[in-house]
Write a structure and sequence with these properties.
about 0% strand; mainly alpha
């Protein structure tokens, strides 16, 4: 391939992520960012976020280094994208959560201008996966107050806190609501 376009770069980054070669995915993404005439697309960011959050599992990359990379990308997105598509915001929430910075995930969620069920479920899952069961449960109540219906993803996320807290009432309430 003589000249790579953003689709070619995205394909390479995505392939590296799918084969768990996270450092190579991030390296390819950085190379793309330095190329003249190539602007990352929404897919570019959605592809690289899982690599950032998984880097520490396979390389000697500290949690703070991952956070720094995540914050740099987040800042770039805010600065360079006129509107932030929901899929990018969801990916940002997941990325910060998997890096261990669930409260930063919540800030991103809290700053969303519009939320959908996927937004709520993403944040609820982020809390639960980081052991913040109470916060996840409280967010479900807030979700319902905001007139969003829980779905099978919400129920699945709630079953973990119910079992962790050994609270049958939470499980029963979840099933009654659903």
């Amino acid at each position: 391939m003589k000249r790579r376009n953003v689709i070619a770069w995205n394909t390479m980054v995505s392939r590296y992520v799918k084969t768990e070669r996270y450092a190579k995915a991030v390296r390819q993404f950085r190379m793309m960012m330095m190329m003249k005439g190539i602007r990352p697309s929404t897919s570019s960011f959605v592809n690289v976020f899982p690599a950032l959050s998984s880097l520490g599992d396979y390389k000697n990359v500290s949690q703070l280094q991952r956070l720094d990379l995540a914050q740099q990308l987040h800042a770039y997105i805010i600065k360079n994208l006129a509107t932030l598509p929901a899929i990018v915001l969801h990916a940002i929430i997941v990325m910060y959560s998997r890096c261990g910075f669930v409260h930063t995930s919540f800030k991103a969620f809290d700053n969303m201008l519009e939320r959908d069920v996927v937004s709520w479920n993403t944040m609820i899952s982020a809390f639960v996966q980081n052991g913040l069961d109470d916060e996840g449960l409280m967010l479900v109540y807030e979700m319902q107050k905001q007139q969003f219906m829980i779905d099978s993803v919400t129920v699945t996320a709630l079953l973990s806190p119910a079992s962790d807290l050994r609270n049958r009432d939470i499980g029963k309430q979840t099933m009654l609501i659903y």
